[in-house]
Design goal:
heterodimer, A: mainly beta, globular, B: mainly beta, six-stranded mixed sheet, about 0% helix
């Protein structure tokens, strides 16, 4: 079955460390997105990419970095510059040609210890 | 970034009751989407609306695209315990599937069996 996979489901990080969250999709979607979700704040866009080797900052990009070397993959790195990284991170994808809604992964919960 | 005004913020109802929630925007949207998120999971698309005045059903769920194109509502009839979760609206301004979605802050629904 086609879908979008995020890993790991839970991630613990020590302060000062960079961590990378994985997002892979086999839906042949062009666009991919990273959101951060905090209680009571809904979904906030971190980065998005509409084509391989190109990506754009979202509303809260500071302290994060991404790459889009393959259509299927859009990893997110949470750097030590992100002051409050503990959150639930969601990856999504969408077909630009077909439109419609985003398909989401099941999320990664990152906790800084 | 811009956000939609989604209300109510939370609801606590008895099983079997009907539920209604809505989203409003200060700008005109071409697409309205309704998602449901279970705890610890990614949002799942419930209903997509593409035309002003459109009324679409998905089982016990019904959503409408407001004729002003600045609002949408979602109704759930005869609620059951598995309806528990957070419901998000999302909208897209303008034409073109490469445009980002704008999200509401969610309506948290609790159902008392």
């Amino acid at each position: 079955d086609g879908g979008i996979t995020q890993s790991p489901k839970y991630l613990f990080r020590k302060e000062g460390q960079n961590v990378t969250l994985s997002c892979e999709q086999n839906l042949n979607h062009d666009a991919m997105y990273w959101y951060r979700q905090d209680p009571g704040q809904g979904l906030r866009l971190i980065y998005y990419s509409q084509i391989v080797n190109d990506f754009q900052k979202g509303d809260i990009a500071e302290g994060y970095s991404v790459s889009r070397e393959k259509k299927e993959s859009f990893p997110l790195t949470v750097t030590s510059a992100q002051k409050n990284p503990t959150a639930f991170y969601l990856c999504a994808s969408r077909s630009i040609l077909q439109g419609g809604g985003y398909t989401f992964g099941s999320g990664t919960r990152l906790t800084v210890v | 970034g811009q956000q939609l005004n989604q209300s109510p913020q939370s609801m606590f109802i008895q099983e079997g009751e009907d539920v209604s929630m809505n989203c409003t925007s200060s700008s005109i949207f071409n697409t309205w989407l309704w998602y449901k998120q279970d705890p610890g999971e990614g949002p799942v698309l419930l209903i997509a609306l593409y035309k002003a005045g459109e009324l679409t059903s998905n089982g016990r769920l019904t959503a409408q695209f407001g004729i002003t194109r600045k609002d949408s509502f979602l109704n759930i009839s005869a609620s059951i315990p598995s309806d528990v979760g957070i419901y998000f609206c999302a909208g897209q301004e303008g034409a073109g599937n490469n445009r980002k979605l704008i999200w509401g802050l969610g309506t948290s629904l609790a159902v008392n069996p």
